[in-house]
Amino acid sequence: MKRNVRREKHVFKTVVGDKEITIETGYFAWQANGAVIVRIGDTMILATATMAKEPREGIDFFPLSVDFEERLYAAGRIPGSFQRREGKPSENAILTARLVDRPLRPLFPKDLRNDVQIILTSLSADPEYHLDIPSIIAASAALTISDIPWSGPIGAVRVGYIDGQFVINPTVSQMEHSRLDLRLAGTADAVIMVEAGANEIPEDLMVEAIRLGHEAMQPLIALQEEMRTAIGKPKAPYRSFTISEEVRQAVRARLDHQIAEILDTYFDKDRRNEALDELEEEILHALSEYEQAQVKESFHEALREEVRRRILEEGRRPDGRGPKDIRPIWCEVDVAPRAHGSAIFTRGDTQVLSVATLATLAEQQELDTLAPEETKRYIHHYNFPPFSTGEVRVLRGASRREIGHGALAERALLPVIPPEDEFPYTIRVVSEVLSSNGSTSMASVCGSTLALMDAGVPIRKPVSGVAMGLVTADETWQKYVILTDIQGMEDHLGDMDFKVAGTADGITALQMDVKIRGLPYHVLAEALHQAREARLYILEKMLEVLPAPRPELKPHAPRIFTVHIPVEKIGALIGPGGKTIRKIQEETNTQIDIEEDGTVHIAATSLADAESARLKIEAYAEEPQVGKIYLGKVIRITDFGAFVEILPGEVGMVHISQIADQKVNRIEDVVRVGDQILVMVTHIDEDGKIRLSRQAVLEGLSVEEAQQRDRLLSSKAAPKGKGKPGEERPLAGRVKIVKRISGER
User: Fold this and answer.
1) What does the pLDDT read at residue 5?
2) Which of 124, 204, 384, 587 is a good FRET partner for 212, with 20 to 30 A between their CA atoms?
3) Which pTM does this prediction carry?
């Protein structure tokens, strides 16, 4: 008897904005704890949520992993790699995974130590619909109907700002005209995660966008609640990793007021951490009879409580600052002599070196991903080496955190990068973290702004950034403190990491993560306005060092000049197999890029080389002019005249009667193939046939005199059987030559 293995299919639908969103489950991937497919348009994302049956021993954190599997078959494409299969995750896949992780993580139990893995797979990629927002929805729905302990669901939307109107979940085409790309996620009550790129959006407008986005996601949350009621599994029990009250009391009894004394004594990070580490070792040794992991966690719990109490009740931060105080700032530019642009930005113990490199447009990054973009002209990379925190670890390439911070800085500066037609360069900035004590991503924004200005990149406006923190007394929001320019300890022990970057006129990038269940709008607005005050102060400090982009590029930077040639001339400029363009590059020591519309970019470190290449290229764009004298090359000789190339691909005929200032019996008596001679264009007919005269140059005739002389001579008898005197045979032969030279058949 054959068993029917097909499972029951469950379909749930709702509308967000004007887009229908469908969630399917039940008939696939049933061995995962929870699995769904989310569909919007033809975009389909499979999300699976799986939890290990036993906790991971010996850890003091919740082991959550989120992976986005970017399958190019979803867009009907085969990967471009040698293996023809997807390799390590692209930056786009990593950024999507991070975006999904951030709103999920705060809603898991703090005492859960079982591994939880979320895998998102792109099954179908509609070019008009983004993959990131459906991925967040899918992960939330998979967790909601699973037996994994989690206090969701959450919703997620994208908000655009197009022609003065907010648009919920705009398409890829619509986003091309948007001043805002806001992605946010939240519960029914509050916003948990915000990620935004913007073209100088004011703070109040940003708050309104977040408010509208939170309202728009409510149908998604309601739909998942409906799914949980209809098909959700009961939440599984798990072994709780909490501190026993006995251990907690033993640690508190040993500590007395020692943590407070250390915080009162040491404002310097290194000395404070050293003292705290020594105290922790003393406590662990004194309480060796207890489980060491619990003793350690209890010590950090006491430290967290004391730091937060001092901030909330006394307005004192670990380094002695007040809530709105910014650490001392100093900057320096032009620190790397061979670099095209460089700057150091230092704020307290955080220091970042940013280096800018300029290259031709041919060196744009090509993207083999499911993202709408195919290339990147502005690239920002961020490196966080272990020495920046005084640690030792193996270097294994860029981490997810490094990729995320680089993307945030890139997003912050992208709105001020000059367009390609004004500044035809590919631009790469690398931010090297030299010392870290919080807010290195925003320091990289500030350092990179200065590096670009030092390189002479005409950015529209300078950009600065700051990281904001938050400490709350409880969830009633009766008492809270917003912190400006947070350091590492405040980030670790606080409730929020809110990064804001922008110009003096508005926000260009935003990233908010919270460790609590959400953030009210009034707190969000207050944090944004407090961040604006800090950004403007930091910007003043930056501009004291370099007030504007340098008027000239550095000596080692390539100079790029732009020339336009007719589209029909592109083939002649390239030449057979690229022979012509390669020859020009070799002769002039330049790099030349040609676009389909006839735009030619010439890159050279020498102005003389660039000018030489420009003259050669412009020769291909020049049209022959009647009356103009050219130095041409004889390419063919017949019994009635010589064919002379006066411009690349432009050939005219000099009749034997016009080859000299006296009567000539044989062309070879005057010129031979390969000779260079001066000739005047005397006539161009409707078909583009060119008639030349060497005699006019030798005798110093005007174009009118040359044309009259040509007409008189042409009226004499032509060779027998060849029609009108001096016309048909030579001109027909000239057409054949021109077509062969231009590559036509």
Assistant:
1) 60
2) 124
3) 0.84
